[in-house]
Amino acid sequence: MSNEENEEKQRSVLEQGKFGYKFTNWSKTFSCKPELFFEPRTTEEIKQILLTAKKLKRCVRVCGAGHSPSDIVCTSDFLIDLKKYNQVLKVKIYAFSQTVVSLQLMTAGGVILECSKTKNEEIFHSVLCGLGAFGVILNITWQCEPAFNLHEKTMSCPLDEMLGKLDQELHSCDHFKFFWYPHTDMVNAIYVTRTKEPPTKPKGSWLWDSLFGFYLLEFLYWMSSFFPSMVPFINKLYFNSLFKNSKERIDKSYKILNFNCLFKQYVTEWAVSRDKTAHVLRRLRDWTETSGIYVHFPVEVRFVKSDDIYLSPCYKKDMCFINIICYRPYGKDIPHDKWWSFYENLMTSVGGVPHWAKAHNLTTSHFERLYPMFRKAREICIKLDPDGTFRNQYVNRVMFESV
């Protein structure tokens, strides 16, 4: 292809980009104004965007729904949204013994790689938790199964009682997690199991679920920004009103597993080895009872099995994720630095690792110690993207600070 043709393609790509676009994540804690914003419809368009960015030495990031409460997407260069490229290519139900999972990755040079557990295996295990640093994922082959219903039971008990029977509860159902409500010493546990029973009739009302459970809560937490000592009262009121009593329901799987995050918030979530769960939660409880600092509910506690993904917090180890929260009622920032600092220091002291998508203060040197396959994944990243086309400030901070 002649220089004139290349320049014409480059001009065409730049003309497709939108000026003045502002990306903001869902919680409105991070935003950026990219130089150009793209919504490609075809694989060729994506390729030309990457080649143009490479030639102009621009960073490229790909955004999704913006649910990540971190700056992982943010860039001042090129930003791509794949919503117009998104489509279901084929649906096929595989036998359970056929774990066929694969993806297509386009590198910064426009090369398309087929990746799976049997082809480009190391790239596959890197990209599954790749932070957008390895390339653009063009398509994914998921293993599907027929839709199913779930039976959900909830119950409450004191925190120490739950921690004393944790192993038993973990094996009592298909999916298990619980929420601790600071300043109450109580938890609400959720047990979910597959069922062939039909969905039950929904209970509740807009007045109770939305007016009380959302709008009044946001107002009360806003009021507590002026009178922080209100927080324990608010937490106790909502636990006793909404979460104390046992409940049951049956519904479609995605309706049961979906979780309402309510209004805007700051969150941080780290994973610790499962055997550290009780120690961490007792330390968090003791701090909230003695520090004089009041914290929002809930603290979410969930459990994830080990995997073989290089940059996964669960690489070769069963883990417990513990998520703390500070709401931003009506967009108002509530001081939370002391709570965050204690939490992060505690998690660091027990070998915890932060959720990649959530805000944290760790850098490359920390991750080199925490992840056995970190250097291997970084080597693969450098090989696929030697010029750093996909490296924004976030990626440089967590993967390349010491390189």
From TrEMBL:
It comes from the Eukaryota. The keyword rRNA processing does not apply. Pfam families: ALO, FAD_binding_4. InterPro entries: ALO_C (IPR007173), FAD-bd_PCMH-like_sf (IPR036318), FAD-bd_PCMH_sub1 (IPR016167), FAD-bd_PCMH_sub2 (IPR016169), FAD_lactone_oxidase-like (IPR010031), Oxid_FAD_bind_N (IPR006094), Vanillyl_alc_oxidase_C-sub2 (IPR016171). Residues 34-92 form the FAD linked oxidase N-terminal domain. The keyword Transmembrane helix applies. The chain crosses the membrane at residues 123-142, 219-239. Residues 140-398 form the D-arabinono-1,4-lactone oxidase C-terminal domain. SUPFAM superfamilies: FAD-binding/transporter-associated domain-like. Keywords: Membrane, Oxidoreductase, Transmembrane, Transmembrane helix. GO terms for molecular function: D-arabinono-1,4-lactone oxidase activity; flavin adenine dinucleotide binding. GO terms for cellular component: membrane. This is L-gulonolactone oxidase-like. It comes from Actinia tenebrosa.
